[in-house]
Amino acid sequence: MPGRYRLPYAGTELTRRHFIAALSVATLSGVGLSRCSFGAQREVVAASEQVAATSPELLPPPPRAARIQLPGGVLSSLPGAGDLLALTVDDGVNSDVVRAYTQFAKDTGVRLTYFVNGIYPAWMDHVDLLRPMVDDGQIQLANHTWSHPNMTRLPLVAVAEELRHNHDFLWKTYGVDVRPYFRSPYGARNAHVDKVAGDLGYTTDTLWSGTLEDQNVIPEAEIVKMAQAYFTPQAIVIGHLNHLPVTNVYGQLVDIIRARRLRTVTLDDVFLRSV
């Protein structure tokens, strides 16, 4: 039936039925993303301080008047010709990496979109650092589901609960309604997932045209190589908030962006909101 999975008004508490369904999803999805070890706190802080000391100011985002209508459906690159780069970063497995990425944005002016899995403690750990940047629009939050399951393998009610639970978490924690943007974990999607998501107001599955390939631990030089390949005009590039190597190459990422005269943007910098 139309609207079967409709979200309650943002901020509404989960009903007992929703809560039980969310617990079921957590059980189904209990094994999934591997966690990397925490640590190297001093190295991450040093890397952020180095970026702040050496990186010149980046180009600003385009003016609000330049925003265009969101086409809807799957989005994998920014439309038209231009000088924009949408750097989108997923998950949040490692709290140190979330903090370092956010500090990197604060220090350099890089604009980012975070696709959040609310199950990870990082999103509560760094509210004080992150929320002011969300409020002023430099960092945008979007829905990556609560616990990162392959939604094509879940019952439809569990798909709805994954999106709804994460939606409510982001509203209660950061005060933002992140619709219409979501990202299907692993890029796994089908017509049934699209229908459930659309009924909840999540009408734009945001995929990517380039990747840093850092969903697993890879050498720092490989991350830079991927940035050199994919930091191109109108690209949507995916990275991850999971492993420490990327925190040591922020200066090199900024150098590529600056040398190519790219403007980093959030999705809201490019598209008009329809929700």
From TrEMBL:
InterPro entries, per the entry: Glyco_hydro/deAcase_b/a-brl (IPR011330), NODB_dom (IPR002509), Polysacc_deacetylase_ArnD (IPR050248)
Domain named NodB homology: residues: 83-275
CDD domains on file: CE4_NodB_like_6s_7s
Transmembrane segments: none
GO terms, biological process: carbohydrate metabolic process
Single annotated GO MF: hydrolase activity, acting on carbon-nitrogen (but not peptide) bonds
Name of this chain's protein: Polysaccharide deacetylase
Protein source organism: Mycobacterium gallinarum
